[in-house]
Input
Amino acid sequence: MNDCLFCKMVRGEIQPRMVMETDELIAFHDINPQAPTHILVVPRRHIATLNEVGDADGPLLGKLMLAARHIAQDRKLAESGYRLVMNCNRGAGQTVFHIHLHLLGGRLMTWPPG
Ligand code: AMP
Ligand code: ZN
Output
């Protein structure tokens, strides 16, 4: 047992506002949304950062992105646009060390990101 926040969600010990569950990933609403839609897509398997992802995990990363795309389409964000973000390590703003893809949409995004 580890005390990783997202592992606790995977195990059902903490219940986020769930959006999608498959055998390999879960997706739920971010508790501190940075856009009208802010959903996190999280693999069930604990991987601390993108640096720890192995070459064999390519399909898993693809599934995270495809899940985000499906959710964006369901929520009618495909036309207006949406942003997918994965922060890697503290310098990039990562605060939960279990990889996750942010799906942000519903407002105009600016570039460069902060
Ligand atoms: P990051 O900074 O990229 O590691 O993203 C972590 C995200 O997890 C942040 O956007 C937080 O708002 C979000 N978060 C932290 N705790 C919770 C929680 N209990 N439920 C949902 N989202 C959370
Ligand atoms: Zn974890």
